[in-house]
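hey m, so remember when u said the tokens were messed up on ur end? i reran from scratch. heres the input so u can diff it against urs
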Amino acid sequence: MGYVAVKGGTEAIHNASELAEFYRIKGDTTPIDIKQIRAQMRLAIDKVMGEGGIYAPEYAAIALKQAEGDVFEAAFILRAFRTTLQRNFYSEMINTREMFVKRKISSSFREIPGGQILGPTRDYTQRTLDTAKATETVNHIKEFLAEFDAKIDPEKLESISSFGKVIDILKNEGLLKPVDNNEDRRITDITREAIKFPAPRSARLQMMARAETGGLMALGYSSQRGFGSVHPTVGELRYGSIPVRVKDASGRTRYIGKIEVTECEMITGSKPGKKNTPPYFSIGYGLCFGHNETKVICMSTLDSAMRRPELGAPANDQEFVLYHTEGVEAMGFTNHLKLPHYVTFQSLLSNTRAAVERNKKANLEAESWAQLRLV
């Protein structure tokens, strides 16, 4: 690459940064409070945390405010901030069976352990523009919350309990595909080790957990349409909070708090590999920070697809999927094209001009020889 410095150097860059800040606040309106962003933009916050690779709602809100709502830029900022932090502990393996469930559904079974819990969703609402939001006030919010609380009957509240998994139904009937002992099951840390292909499943799931939702959706959708031949069914989709524990210096396990996650287990029918082998079901898995159902559905779809690389479709290719859904890297490379490329382009321009001149010269010579033959 042939890059050159921007004219004006650091001063010009500082001026550009100041101008961007001016455009952010030039409307002379009341600054958006970070608490407001956290409370009312929770899905955007969850995307920024997921793609930034750090669970920090307040910092994600700050990044979103700084980036004027650009989720890509906010994730970029948060990912960069993450690199400055010291790593003190590795968490113990989380157990999603301990999840305090806020939403739990299955499209594979009507009756599931604990029942279907719709929770907070817009799946069954009309996507019409609610213009009343333009005149919403604090009083409107208080009235809604009061009406909502009034609908809750304390006598009908049940004690909190954990729920069994839908996949246990398949396990108990012996319908799940046995574990493949040949599959690479090493536990790697993609933030400490360079990715190498073929990558173990742990690395693939980590990269997709940090991947850009739209990228995962595009490739997951391609697989469902036939470019990957994986069209699974949602075995179980969960959203809720789970406890996180770490081991301190003395080796004692400590509870440090809860984080919100979304988890999905997709059921895919598998073809028998050998004669007289039954067609078991296999499970694709997805889990990410916050509430992001589209991401985990596509993540678990692609998890299944990448375990069948022999099909040769884009969604089955590990390198294609993992590199092209990495939002921060993709954004960085795409936007680096705005940087000065004067040297490389001038070289290309000179070569192109020389080639055009040679072609013109060759055409003139050919015309001259043709005229001499006619004479």
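this time it looks ok to me. Residues 96-237+261-332 form one domain. if urs says something different then somethings off w ur setup not the seq
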